[in-house]
Amino acid sequence: MSKHTIPHIAKQNGHLVLMVEDKPFILLAGEVHNSDSSSPAYMEHIWEIADHLGMNTLLLPVTWEMIEPEEGTFDFSVPQALIDQSRERGMSIVFLWFGSWKNAGCMYAPAWIKQDLRRFPRAQIVKGKNKAGRQVSPTIPVKMPYTTLSYLGTETMQADAKAFAAFMGFLKDYDEERQTVVAVQVENETGLLGAAKEVSDEADALFTSEVPVDFVAYMRAHSDSMTDEIRAAVLGGRECGNWREVFGETADELFSAYHVAKYVNTVAAAGKAVYPLPMTANCWLDKGSEPGSYPTGGPVSKVHEAWDFCAPSIDVYCPDIYVPQFKEVCDEYTRRGGALFIPECATHSYAAPRLLYTVGHFHAMCYSPFGFDDIGHPFSAQQGFLFGMDVSDPALKTPQSFEEYAAIGHILREMMPMLAQAYGTNCLQAVSAETDPVTPHPSGNPFMAIPPMMDFGAFRVSAHFQGPMNPRGDGALLCLKISDAECWLVGNACSISLSSGDPDRPNLDLLSVEEGSFENGAWRPGRRLNGDETAQMNMANPSVWHMKFFAYK
Ligand code: DGJ
Fold first, then answer.
1. For 517-536, how does the pLDDT look when each residue is reduced to its tens digit (9 = 90+)?
2. CA-nearest residue, atom 5 of ligand 1
């Protein structure tokens, strides 16, 4: 038995943090391409890249088809080899359970599940059809063939739960002592495409039956945090009745959410009963579009209250963020006090600034670019589509520089214990060019515009992301306050100014500014900056500075 409690989620300073070996831990992670972790041999160079990028954790698929190729026969040799590789490198793992769902499809279900449509029924988006065309986009008049397992398939759910419990049993036996695996994602991007709800006879019968009264009562009692659309439907509908009567226009989506979340919960609970690691559910975002055009029933933010009721074994809902509206999505997923856990995000040139920003501003539990081994490479057509290359911001069209991500990643990995200790306090803050615009001065004078600023009470740190010294305009700056007279700054592509926040001591002088690096957790000072370098405090490249200063009257 390990001397530590198993990885778990706890509150620190009122903020949810992941605890590993009884200490707060930040997953400075990367998710591998879907097929990579099926081959430990292939993974060798992926671990190397992750290490070069300063990552401390990998998000790795483990698939139902691989671990249970025949019903009741399990093979955990691949996840075991991945755990061994991870241990050799002192890294952690979050396994992604590709079970009944993967991107709203069922391609990772074992052959014995796929072939037995009687025991394991498919979802019907067209009555009577096991596979049917779905329109991929409102603007593209082409239908793609689509099939997935039904969320009403009780035997499928039980089989998935059994397999997942067996997997968690393997993790408990093989890893409870060492605790390499720190969390598990249950399924991947759940929900139904092509229709807002299933339309089989069984689904129709359930939809026209009474909504479970405990669910209605829960929804009505939790309307405060809901989006306007769901709140209006919940409060405007009947207190009892069928789904349409109770939930009006939102009934189809809530019906799907209810059944998908209950299904996922059954799987998660079976796993937790064996080995209760933190469990997450990731989400293909709705992007403001119509139900059916995104996986409907999955944990999009507007149905979080329904998921809370149906899936108490899921600890965190996680957005897969490829859209340009990065901060808006992070705000949405944290609006109810949830932790920010980003299992997938883009590898364009905001990848590194967003890493700094999510750690410093959101005190994120996880930040993880998807297919991170692509960092620094030109985008593939699929990435171009995913990352929204059609938008006007050039940073979204530019691949992240490998060297810059690696430099920031290494600094954060070394500082991780310090940063994690500050989670939940305002001693850790960050601003970025993408998320914190300059505030124009009321006079309209551009030289008097107010730059983004972090307020630490006794002192303030302002970041200048635009201007002749930083023409790229995609910088970010994180500040960790140590005391009223000392801080660490981690930044890139920005200049900095410090001021006093104390009205009784409004003047501030620098005492020392050191640039340097951390090695094995110890600070190795490099140049002591002064003169020109502190007159214009510019971090043109990824840097970490240790600053001391004092305020006076
Ligand atoms: C989201 C999925 O969750 C990932 O597994 C992967 O398919 C990416 N999309 C994009 O390729």
1. 999 989 999 999 999 999 98
2. 34
Separation CA 111–CA 109 (nearest Å): 7
CA–CA gap between residue 77 and residue 112 (Å, rounded): 20
Q: Distance from the CA of 103 to the center of ligand 1, in angstroms?
A: 7
Q: DSSP string spanning 504-539?
A: TS-EEEEEEEEEEEEETTEEEEEEEP-THHHHT-EE
Q: Separation of 396 CA from ligand 1 center, angstroms?
A: 18
CA-nearest residue for atom 8, ligand 1, is: 370
DSSP letters, 156-211, are: HHHHHHHHHHHHHHHHHHHHTTT--EEEEEEEES-SBSSSSS--SHHHHHHHTSBP
The span from the first CA to the last CA of the chain, in angstroms, equals: 58
Please write the tens of the pLDDT for every residue from 213-269: 999 999 999 999 999 999 999 999 999 999 999 999 999 999 999 999 999 999 999
Which atom of ligand 1 is found nearest the CA of 61? 5
CA of 203 relative to ligand 1 center, distance in Å: 28
pLDDT > 70: what percent of the chain?
99
Which protein residue's CA is at the shortest distance from atom 9 of ligand 1? 103
Is any atom of ligand 1 closer than 6 Å to the C-beta of 34?
Answer: yes
Burial class (CB in 10 A: 0-12, 13-18, 19+), 484: middle
Of the pLDDT bands very low, low, confident and very high (cuts 50, 70, 90), residue 1 is low
Q: Which DSSP symbol is given to 466?
A: S
Task: Summarize pLDDT for 26-57 with one digit per residue, the tens.
Answer: 999 999 999 999 999 999 999 999 999 999 99
User: From CA 264, how far away is CA 307, in angstroms rounded?
Assistant: 10
The Å distance, Cα 336 to ligand 1 centre, comes to: 26
Q: Is 85 in the pocket of ligand 1 (CB under 6 A)?
A: no
Amino acid present at 59: L
For 105, counting Cβ atoms within 10 Å of its Cβ (0-12 exposed, 13-18 middle, 19+ buried), the class is middle
Residue 104: helix, strand or coil by DSSP?
Answer: coil
387 CB less than 6 Å from ligand 1? no
* Biggest distance spanned by C-alpha atoms of the chain: 81
Q: Which amino acid does the sequence have at 322?
A: Y
Chain segment 480-501, per-residue pLDDT in tens: 999 999 999 999 999 999 999 9
Q: Evaluate if pTM is beyond 0.90.
A: yes
Q: Does 189 contact ligand 1 (Cβ within 6 A)?
A: yes
Residue to mutate (ligand 1; options 31, 32, 34; most atoms within 8 A of CB): 34
Q: Is 438 exposed, middle or buried (0-12, 13-18, 19+ CB in 10 A)?
A: middle
- Helix, strand or coil, per DSSP, at residue 366: strand
Burial 410-424 (b: 16+ CB within 10 A, else e): bbbbbbbeebbbbbb
| Encoded tokens for 84 | 């061994």
Cα 145 to Cα 120: distance, rounded to the nearest angstrom: 19
In Å, how far are 262, 263, 285, 313, 315 from 307, measured between CA atoms? 8, 11, 15, 10, 11
